[in-house]
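Quick one:
INPUT:
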């Protein structure tokens, strides 16, 4: 590009009247080239840093640093709005922080009997998850945004390919996790079939994407929901078995979510205890590229073991009276209190953005 700038200057010495216009054009091209190089080099650094995060042994350090990292990614996205890579990193960052950290705060506070703390975290998580879904839609592009507004996403989902995969997964996860945090919201609950269809299509495109996250989430749904809403313990267990195979047993959160949803959903207390005990004594350093998410899984396994009696002894959830924006008197029994609200904290996940 620098040679282009010199060539423009040499070739226009004999034509002074065109010199200014061509120099402006040439310098603009040079400026664009410099900007592209700056964006590429910055993105390479940011992409590489995500692997360093996954290898970190310090869970609390990463937690505290994550909000600042999101602000930085927002700035890069604003500076380079046409660079898809920054949008992908920003989407992953919001979704993973919302699910892996903030929604986990809701769960911990709820299970340990701190309702005011849980409610504050829930409100924060809902805002982050809305941003997660919005960014997922941005990744999918304008046609998807327009189709989503018109409630006509099904044809696009049926034709979706590899390029749409990440956007579909994050959009679906954002929807599902908002439902688990606000199961009385009928409008959100009505999006559950759409969210499931996004993840089911993701399985067709690449079932191992993001450490088989679609299998894990669909499995958690199947084990947590009542049959009326698509619950099926056998199908859920098959999803988890496939996730274990695809991840080679290296992603401990698969086992944790299985125990929290399928073992709990079937009332198998021995399986619950054994699965989580095995995870709780694991060494996260055994899998260096997954050290952080596995440390999070171990922490979660120990929490579940601590509150095992509370999880198994609580009464079945009553019929919920959802928020209905239409004003109609609608009731729905979601079953989401059986563990889907917390079991889907898979999310953290799991280093797939670095591979």
């Amino acid at each position: 590009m620098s040679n282009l700038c010199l060539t423009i200057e040499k070739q226009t010495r004999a034509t002074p009247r065109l010199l200014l216009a061509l120099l402006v054009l040439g310098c603009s091209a040079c400026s664009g080239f410099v900007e592209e190089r700056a964006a590429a080099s910055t993105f390479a650094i940011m992409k590489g840093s995500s692997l360093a995060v996954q290898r970190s042994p310090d869970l609390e350090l990463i937690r505290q640093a994550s909000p600042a990292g999101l602000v930085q990614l927002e700035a890069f996205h604003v500076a380079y709005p046409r660079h898809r890579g920054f949008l992908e990193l920003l989407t992953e960052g919001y979704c993973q922080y919302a699910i892996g950290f903030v929604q986990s705060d809701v769960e911990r506070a709820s299970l340990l009997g701190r309702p005011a703390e849980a409610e504050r975290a829930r409100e924060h998580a809902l805002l982050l998850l809305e941003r997660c879904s919005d960014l997922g839609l941005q990744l999918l592009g304008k046609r998807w945004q327009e189709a989503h507004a018109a409630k006509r996403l099904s044809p696009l989902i049926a034709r979706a390919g590899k390029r749409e995969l990440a956007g579909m997964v994050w959009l679906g996860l954002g929807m599902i996790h908002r439902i688990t945090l606000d199961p009385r919201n009928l409008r959100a609950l009505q999006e559950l079939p759409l969210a499931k269809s996004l993840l089911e299509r993701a399985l067709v495109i690449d079932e191992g994407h993001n450490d088989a996250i679609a299998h894990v989430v669909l499995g958690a749904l199947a084990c947590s929901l009542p049959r009326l809403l698509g619950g099926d313990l056998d199908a859920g267990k098959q999803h988890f078995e496939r996730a274990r195979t695809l991840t080679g047993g290296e992603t401990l959160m698969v086992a944790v979510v299985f125990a929290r949803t399928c073992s709990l959903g079937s009332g198998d207390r021995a399986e619950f205890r054994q699965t989580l005990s095995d995870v709780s004594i694991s060494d996260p350093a055994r899998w260096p590229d997954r050290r952080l998410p596995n440390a999070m899984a171990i922490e979660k396994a120990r929490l579940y073991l601590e509150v095992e009696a509370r999880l198994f002894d609580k009464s079945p959830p009553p019929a919920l009276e959802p928020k209905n924006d239409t004003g109609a008197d609608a009731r729905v029994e979601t079953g989401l209190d059986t563990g889907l609200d917390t079991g889907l904290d898979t999310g953290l996940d799991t280093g797939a953005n670095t591979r």
